[in-house]
Design brief:
By secondary structure, the protein is mostly helical. The protein contains four helices and no strands. Helix 1 packs antiparallel against helix 2 and helix 2 runs antiparallel to helix 4.
Length: 112
């Protein structure tokens, strides 16, 4: 009896993946910088470099959202309803990841 391999592997284009991750991280960084710019005076009880945590965590979450967008390309290429579903799902995952990254990044300071 011969074994049959039903798994299909898709090649990963590293430059395209990196581009989507950088775009996702840049959008997230812009949003958190705008949010932190309007924060006003920090609480003296917060650590000295309290802004460092959200400036690292939120862009990382945005980069993961960009990676998810890249990995949905296969569904997007099928066209029709799958393209719409892939775009909507990618947007929702990005927003959810950005929200979670913001909560984790601001934990212990502004999000107490």
């Amino acid at each position: 009896m011969t074994q049959k391999n039903n798994l299909i592997t898709w090649p990963v284009s590293t430059p395209a993946l990196a581009k989507r991750m950088l775009i996702g991280a840049a959008i997230a960084l812009l949003l958190i910088v705008i949010f932190l710019a309007g924060a006003g005076e920090p609480n003296p009880a917060w650590p000295r470099f309290w802004m460092l945590q959200p400036l690292l965590v939120v862009p990382f979450a945005g980069a993961m959202g960009g990676a998810f967008y890249y990995f949905m390309d296969h569904q997007r290429s099928r066209g029709g309803g799958r393209k719409i579903l892939a775009n909507v799902l990618s947007f929702l995952v990005y927003i959810f990841g950005l929200w979670m990254g913001t909560v984790l990044g601001l934990n212990g300071t502004m999000w107490n």
